[in-house]
Design goal:
Rossmann fold, Helicase, Ruva Protein, domain 3, alpha/beta, DNA replication origin binding, Hda_lid, five-stranded parallel β-sheet, DNA replication protein, 9 helices
Length: 241
C-alpha cells in the first residue's frame, strides 16, 4: 500500500471528523462530523485530506461493501464540489468533458465495473487523461485494488497501477460499537450498554447494516411506544440480525 501523505495544514481537514471516543450529539447522517476515524480508515482519510496535492490525477479508494468508503467519498465530494458518476455515465465519449464540469473533480462509484468492457475502459482512459490535462482529479471507488481488476487496455491499466490506491477495512468491534451508540444518539434515543452488547454479538460488521438495525428498532419502538431494551430487540429482530 502506498504510504499516505501528511495532510496539508491550511485546508480544512477531514481529520476534524469525530475520533473515538465520540462526542454524542445530533449530526447529519452523511456529514463530516458523522464519520468516525479508526485504524481501518485513517490512511484513506489522510489521502483525501491531502487533496489537491495528489501525485496523480486519480486516487483509488477500495474496500468491502459497508466499510464506509461511500460516506468518506461523499465528504470529499462535498469539499471538492465534484460530480458523482457511475460507469454508465462513461458510455458516451462525447459527454466526457461534461463529467468534470464545472469543478474538474468527480467520484466514480463501482469503478472496477469498467473491466472487460472495451468501450468503458477506453472512456475511463480518456477521462483520466482529460483530468490530467485540465488539472482535475478523479476519486475511484471499488471493492478491490486496481491490480485485481481485469483491465485489458494496457494504457489504462498502467495509469491505474501508477495512481495511489488506499484500502479501507470493515469496521472492527470498537468502531462498530461507537457507530451504534452514535446512530442511537442521532435519533435522540438512550439505550443501555446491554443493548449495545446484544447487538454487537449479532450485527453484521458493516455501517449499512448498523444503520438499518437502528432505524428498524427506532420505528418499531415509536409504533409500540416502548423503550428499546434487549427483550424488545429480541422481539423485533429475533436472535439473528
Amino acid at each position: 500500500m502506498t504510504t499516505p501523505p501528511q495532510p496539508p495544514s491550511n485546508p480544512p481537514s477531514l481529520l476534524s471528523t469525530r475520533q473515538i471516543p465520540l462526542d454524542l450529539g445530533h449530526r447529519s447522517a452523511m456529514g463530516e462530523d458523522d464519520f468516525l476515524v479508526a485504524p481501518g480508515n485513517q490512511d484513506a482519510v489522510a489521502w483525501l485530506d491531502a487533496w489537491p496535492e495528489w501525485p496523480a490525477p486519480a486516487l483509488v479508494l477500495f474496500g468491502p461493501a459497508g466499510c464506509g468508503k461511500s460516506h468518506l467519498a461523499q465528504i470529499w465530494r462535498a469539499r471538492a464540489r465534484g460530480n458523482l458518476l457511475s460507469v454508465d455515465d462513461l458510455r458516451d465519449e462525447a459527454e466526457l468533458p461534461d463529467l468534470l464540469r464545472p469543478m474538474r473533480t468527480a467520484v466514480l462509484d463501482g469503478a472496477q465495473g469498467v473491466a472487460g468492457d472495451p468501450a468503458l475502459e477506453r472512456s475511463l482512459f480518456h477521462l483520466y487523461n482529460l483530468a490530467k490535462e485540465i488539472g482535475g482529479h478523479l476519486l475511484l471507488l471499488a471493492e478491490n485494488a486496481p491490480i485485481n481488476w481485469l483491465i485489458r487496455l494496457p494504457d489504462l491499466r498502467s495509469r491505474l497501477l501508477a495512481a495511489p490506491a488506499v484500502g479501507m477495512a470493515a469496521p472492527d468491534d470498537a468502531l462498530l460499537m461507537a457507530v451504534l451508540v452514535k446512530l442511537f444518539a442521532d435519533r435522540q434515543i438512550r439505550v443501555g450498554e446491554d443493548v449495545i452488547d446484544w447487538l454487537m454479538t449479532r450485527t453484521e460488521r458493516s455501517f449499512a447494516n448498523a444503520r438499518r438495525v437502528v432505524a428498524t428498532l427506532d420505528h418499531a419502538a415509536l409504533a409500540a411506544k416502548k423503550p428499546i431494551t434487549v427483550r424488545f430487540c429480541r422481539q423485533v429482530l429475533g436472535d439473528q440480525v
